[in-house]
Amino acid sequence: MSFPDRMLGITVMPEYLQVEGAEAVLDNLQHRAGATAIATSPYVLAQAAEGEGGREPPIDGGAGAVRLLDRPLWGRRALWVRTAPAFVPDRALYRGLRYQPAEPDALTAAEGPRLAAAIAAAKRRGLAVHLQVQAAIPPGYRVQFGGPLPEDRPRLPDGSEVPGRVDLNASLAADAVLDYQRALLRDLARAYPMVDAIRLDWPEYPPYAFRSLFFDFSAPACDLARRLGFDLDAMRRDAQAVLDDATSGAAARALVAAMAGGATQAALRLFAARPGLLELARFKAAVTTRYLAAMAETLAEASLGRIALIPQAFPPPFSFASGFDFAAVAKLVPAMGVKFYTMHWPMMLWEWAGALGAAEDPAVLAALAGALDLVDGPIDPARFRYPEPEEAHPVGLAAQARKIAAARAAAGATPVLAYAHAYGPLADVAARFRTAWTASGGRVFVNRYGYLSNDKLDAIGQIGRLPGGHA
């Protein structure tokens, strides 16, 4: 399946198609931003009472409560919402499965047809249409609504969970989750046969929390590790040792000392001392690749090869910890997305430093920023938190370009789309988009329309029309 040389896409959540109207939204995307593609999701949304359902914009593990929408919904820049599927699931596809699709209701009947009509309208205009769902959060339509049962959740070496996670992902080794996701892809191919791609969000172990780096020792994962021949004892021993060192403060001191020789030397020293960690990284990559192979096979069969599967994941080096192997996945799919949601990264850095017992230690923050390649120069520790709506994100533009280059190098001939984020002030959003546009060779999706004022849409359009987007 071939992929366009140039793609300027914008993710539009269904609520904006409901509130602003599909034709008005599509006019904005094409005439202001010069978009050639859109992405949306198979749900519809309604307002809810304060504190019920989920907050829009999302809370992001509690830190994202500062976020406000640029484009109001029902006249509000922050509100509580509930969702329903935009389509009527085919129950026969899920018969006998542990997980079942969300029940359609009156909201589905009243608003669901709007999504299908918007997709048809976009196709008439010549736009590519991608449909985004969650990779491992049943029922999977939207990240804030769903989640796995306890037996299918990822676990730490001692069998415990990480509470309050941003992602709510299941263990990718859980057959019940894999079976549900295969049924969902078949259902979406039936309900929306006109879409060009289905995007799987977080087909990995998202590393928002430091302790999440040491997943996955759930029962399904341990069973799979044994079947695949991984050294489960070494993985468990060395992962638990690092967690113990984090509790004692030894890990923070070791990190600062190791980073004095640079990130490469620090990594080599770590894996020499704790080889089970490298085994764990290899195992997570095997689990993720196995999962995506099943997804790719299912969607190809269900759509007769018409609908592309596009996984979207964290960029390097986060992807090493999350288990997303760009080189291995490149053999399975026609394209991949790499996410540059840069408001999350300083929040993550602060959380990781806190887990090491050193949230206020500039030396630890600097060592983490260097290890993760987040900045282009010295860091300001006070800025490493979730940015306010009008604050530029404290992440280096050159660092972002390096991450895109690393993903592209690993993916080889398989196209890599950079997913830039629209949250933040105009100048910062434009600079991050320009970086993504150039470094990706002119393949960018912007997330998401709710943060795109008309001025931001115009800025994206001006940059996207400039030469040089095909590096």
Strand content: 5-15%
Number of DSSP-assigned strands: 11
Largest sheet features: 8 strands, parallel, barrel
Order of helices and strands: EHHEEEEHEHEHHHHHEHHEHHHEHEH
Rg (CA only): 21 Å
Number of helices: 16
- Note the overall shape: globular
Whole-Å distance between the termini? 22 Å
Corresponding CATH architecture: Alpha-Beta Barrel
Quick recap of the structure?
With 471 residues, the chain is an alpha/beta fold. It is built from 16 helices and eleven strands.
Give a description of the structure.
With 471 residues, this protein is α/β, with parallel strands linked by helices. The chain starts with 6 loop residues before the first strand and ends in a 7-residue tail after the last helix. Helix 15 runs parallel beside helix 16 (454-464). The chain has one domain (7-225, 285-357, 378-464): Alpha-Beta Barrel (TIM Barrel), CATH 3.20.20.80. It is globular, with a radius of gyration of 21 Å. The chain has helices at 14-19, 22-32, 106-124, 175-191, 219-228, 232-248, 250-259, 263-273, 275-303, 318-322, 326-329, 344-355, 362-371, 397-411, 426-440, 454-464, and strands spanning 7-11, 37-40, 43-47, 54-56, 79-85, 128-134, 197-201, 308-313, 336-340, 416-421, 443-447. The strands form two sheets. Strands 1-2-6-7-8-9-10-11 form an eight-stranded parallel beta barrel, surrounded by four helices. The mean pLDDT is 95. Helix 15 links the parallel strand 10 and strand 11. This is Glycosyl hydrolase-like 10 domain-containing protein.
